[in-house]
Amino acid sequence: MHYRKLILFLLYSFNFSSYANNIVLPDIGDNAGNVSPIEEYRTGEAVIRNIRRAGGVIDDPLIQTYLTELGYRLVAASETQQPFHFFLIKDKSINAFALPGGFIGINAGLILATKSESELAGVMAHEIAHVTQRHHARQYEQNESSIPIMAALIAAMVLSSQNNELGQAAVTSMAAGSVQKQLNFTRENEKEADRIGIELLIKADFDAHAMPAFFDTMDKQSRLYGDNIPEFLRSHPVNPARISDSMNRANHYPNRMVISSTAYHLLQTRLKILASEDKSELLKDFSSMIKIGNYQNKDSAHYGYALALQLNKKYPESLEQVQILLNKHPENISYNILKAQIETDLKNYPAAIKTFEKILKIYPGNLTIHQFYAETLIKAGKIKLAHKLLETQVAKSIKSPIIFQLLAETEAKMSNLAKSHQALAEYYYLQGQTHEAIKQIEISLNTKNINFYMTNRLEARLKEFKDELLQLNTH
């Protein structure tokens, strides 16, 4: 069944991460030579669900929106019709990877390691190129192996990562005998992804030299790590020849001075806040940053200071910092959401609702604002309005666990117990907890006074969940 070859392929496309354990994937077909887009999507989606199960995905709506907008700016520069899904991985290591179905994961550590928006765009462009060139599907065909085996190997690899030494030893053992052939194929993939990635950068108005610049930074840093080399360099090996090749390609284009957007600086700041484990130290750092003026972007520094103050429950001072930002940029979504959240923390719900209503007049229907607004409305006791906003999100096929969790809460408060358990089932499924999802559907089916149509929907979903588990247990 060609396990050794597939293990090597997975090393190219998937990271050994300590958080992503107990991964399970559904049986998604037997034809290795004819991989359909639906099969690829199901593979990628299953991986993400199981990373979530281990707490490895950061589902922050503001960060998610930024990554999606940046990603699709690059996708628009290509000729692909492939849908993409960008997500943030809760990991400090430097890594990014593409999965079947257009799922692209970017580690928090990689984003914080970039020095410019163009560098981040360069990494994303490289991963987008892996997808548009269908490197995954081509590898399936090269290995003459079925997708269920591929799925099982991903599960085995991630499970083995619970013991890093054991995992590395297992991979080394399975890899023996076909290393050179597979490495040559991988290097060609990397070279092609670099070439197309640079073209995407240029078409999307980024600096083409950012890609080789990031490679060079990683190459220099790798010498300091010794055996603890960053995962990005394990799965995307950088060497002088590759840096030189990408630099030569970038030199074919004029030098372009691209200033990183404020949104990029806000992204890095928000990530620093989310990644910090010491709230008081965080506050000291941002306070010092503001006083000394030691920052790349003044607005993002004030934003970070406001977030740090909020985390330390210094709400009036935090509100003061946000107001400084809003005086300059009254229509900025991040600043308005933070203002409304602080007002919510202060239990000044009328003020928070007014802030949300104001920003929604500028950005009507904005789903990111809707989610934060729904959270405030629930706390304010305005359950029906929150429910309406959340149903709009679900109707637009927003697959966010938080949305379904909030929807379940509003349904329960409205005494719609069957629908509450139905929403909880979707929440648990997106979290990779299919057994718990089945339990919630069964509770919903046993609820009194549910109609024929809802019963049919619940039974159909229950069958889907059970079929998936059955497929897993038979491979």
Any overview of this molecule?
By secondary structure, the chain is mostly helical. It has two domains: 3-250, no CATH class; 276-360, Tetratricopeptide repeat domain (Serine Threonine Protein Phosphatase 5, Tetratricopeptide repeat, Alpha Horseshoe). The chain is 69% helix and 3% strand. The chain has 24 helices and four strands. Strands 1-2-4-3 form a four-stranded mixed β-sheet, with helices on both faces. Strand 3 (96-99) and strand 4 (103-107) form a beta hairpin. It is globular, with a radius of gyration of 24 Å. The protein starts with a helix and ends with a helix.
- Ranges where pLDDT stays below 50 over 5 or more residues in a row are 1-32, 143-149, 154-185
Number of domains: 2
Taking the sheet with the most strands, its summary is:
4 strands, mixed
What order do the helices and strands follow? HHEHEEEHHHHHHHHHHHHHHHHHHHHH
Helical content class: 55-70%
Percent range for β-strand residues: under 5%
Radius of gyration using CA atoms only: 24 Å
From the helix content, strand content and strand pairing, which structural class follows?
mainly alpha
Query: Please, how many helices?
Result: 24
Write down the overall mean pLDDT. 81
**Alpha carbon gap, first and last residue:** 13 Å
Strand order of the largest sheet: 1-2-4-3
